[in-house]
């Protein structure tokens, strides 16, 4: 458990945040300049707050009223930044061993071989950072932080410097380290997809203040009709279980109480939980179920809200069978033509090709 309550004032910025994080990933989410990195630096001991108290487990890291401020090296916190910050003249194995060297032997509870296996970096050990891709460098940086056996891992936009493909390469590794090492993580991002897939809890910041705390499905849900590009940020998070893999078509079948979700690629672990992020702009609504369409995923639910303004869009909120909440954008013209209203039963159609399967943990792409 991490408990944070800090205040800090600068000439052009003021920070006043308070939140708690438990097991898994606590995401600090918000636009650039909202204070996410400053919070991370305060937790790490790199920034001293004007007022505040930071407690990790049963250890007080910072308490300005009591005059307590542990040094960075005494906080037992692992740090991963946008830039991997590896030593360029050292091989990967030596970079990995660097942090472990300064960790007392009795505290080295995380095994070398386990880290190498989870992050898939065994074949990189004899190489130098300059020969690695951006995604490989970040995996090594994560491994170096893990091998210090930290009580908390801080990840400050670790994927921001990577291109789209490299980001999606790293996400499953972050999922695995979250699940297999059971180290709490505070993860900074302004990416909706990253937060939806990784976080157990989301702390949303705006202008140095906490404006919302909750599960990803709650915090990432749109609150009003979005205009222009903002509508593409509206996201729903759906949770189902892997039913089977269709080797003929290269598709995974995910069982959800509202229906079956069809996902490209092969997932392992029949019966295991799968979490998917679905953009509101990728959902089509139907008042009836027609099989004469190419879409294979049709989830049943009931309309609980229809938001409109004077623009062209309508935002429809649907309670799916089983409890998940799904958001869909449509035009006001379509809503009026369908006569869609609160209380109507609908089918939410989601094209399999619209779900970016590369960021789903444990999934491999089946060659065509």
Topology:
Elements: E1 2-10, E2 13-21, E3 25-29, H1 36-44, E4 51-56, E5 59-63, E6 68-69, E7 77-80, H2 92-101, H3 112-119, H4 134-146, E8 152-156, H5 164-181, E9 185-189, H6 192-198, E10 201-206, E11 209-214, H7 216-219, E12 235-246, E13 251-256, E14 259-264, E15 266-267, E16 273-279, E17 283-286, E18 297-308, E19 313-320, E20 325-331, H8 332-338, E21 345-350, E22 363-364
Parallel strand pairs: 3-9, 3-10, 7-8, 8-9
Antiparallel strand pairs: 1-2, 1-4, 4-5, 5-6, 10-11, 12-13, 12-16, 13-14, 15-22, 17-21, 18-19, 18-21, 19-20
Strand order of the biggest β-sheet? 7-8-9-3-10-11
Main sheet, how many strands, which sense, barrel? 6 strands, mixed
Low-confidence stretches: none
Helical amount:
10-25%
The general outline is: globular
Determine the structural class based on helices, strands and strand pairing. alpha+beta
Mean pLDDT: 85
Explain this structure.
The chain is of the alpha+beta class and 368 residues long. The protein has helices at residues 36-44, 92-101, 112-119, 134-146, 164-181, 192-198, 216-219, 332-338; strands at 2-10, 13-21, 25-29, 51-56, 59-63, 68-69, 77-80, 152-156, 185-189, 201-206, 209-214, 235-246, 251-256, 259-264, 266-267, 273-279, 283-286, 297-308, 313-320, 325-331, 345-350, 363-364. The strands form five sheets. It has a six-stranded mixed beta sheet, sandwiched between helices. A five-stranded antiparallel beta sheet has the order 2-1-4-5-6, with helices on one face. Helix 2 (92-101) packs parallel to helix 4 (134-146) and helix 4 (134-146) packs parallel to helix 5. The protein is globular. The termini are far apart. The model has no long low-confidence stretch (mean pLDDT 85).
């Amino acid at each position: 458990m991490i408990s944070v309550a800090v205040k800090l004032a600068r000439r052009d910025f003021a920070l006043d945040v308070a939140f708690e994080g438990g097991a898994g990933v606590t995401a600090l989410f918000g636009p650039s300049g909202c204070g996410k990195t400053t919070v991370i630096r305060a937790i790490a001991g790199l920034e001293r707050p004007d007022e505040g108290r930071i407690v990790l487990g049963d250890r007080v890291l910072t308490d300005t009223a009591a005059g307590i401020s542990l040094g960075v090296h005494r906080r037992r916190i692992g740090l991963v930044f946008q830039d991997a910050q590896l030593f360029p003249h050292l091989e990967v194995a030596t970079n990995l061993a660097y942090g472990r060297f300064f960790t007392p032997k009795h505290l080295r509870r995380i095994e070398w071989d386990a880290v190498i296996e989870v992050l898939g970096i065994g074949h990189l050990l004899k190489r130098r950072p300059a020969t690695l891709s951006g995604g490989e460098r970040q995996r090594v940086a994560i491994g170096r932080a893990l091998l210090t056996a930290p009580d908390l891992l801080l990840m400050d936009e670790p994927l921001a410097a990577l291109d789209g493909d490299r980001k999606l390469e790293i996400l499953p590794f972050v999922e695995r380290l979250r699940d297999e090492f059971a180290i709490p993580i505070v993860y900074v991002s302004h990416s909706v997809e990253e937060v939806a897939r990784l976080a157990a809890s989301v702390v949303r910041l705006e202008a140095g203040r906490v404006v919302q705390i909750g599960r990803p499905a709650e915090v990432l849900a749109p609150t009003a009709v979005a205009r222009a590009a903002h509508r593409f940020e509206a996201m729903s998070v759906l949770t189902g279980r892997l039913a089977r893999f269709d080797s003929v078509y290269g598709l995974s079948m995910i069982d959800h109480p509202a229906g079956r979700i069809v996902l490209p690629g092969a997932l392992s672990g029949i019966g295991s939980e799968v979490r998917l992020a679905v953009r509101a702009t990728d959902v089509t609504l139907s008042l009836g179920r027609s099989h004469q369409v190419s879409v294979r995923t049709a989830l049943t639910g009931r309309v609980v809200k229809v938001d409109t303004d004077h623009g062209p869009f309508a935002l429809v909120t649907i309670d799916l069978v089983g409890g998940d909440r799904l958001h869909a954008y449509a035009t006001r013209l379509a809503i009026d033509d369908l006569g869609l209203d609160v209380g109507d039963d609908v089918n939410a159609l989601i094209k399999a090709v619209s779900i970016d399967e590369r960021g789903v943990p444990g999934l491999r792409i089946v060659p065509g």
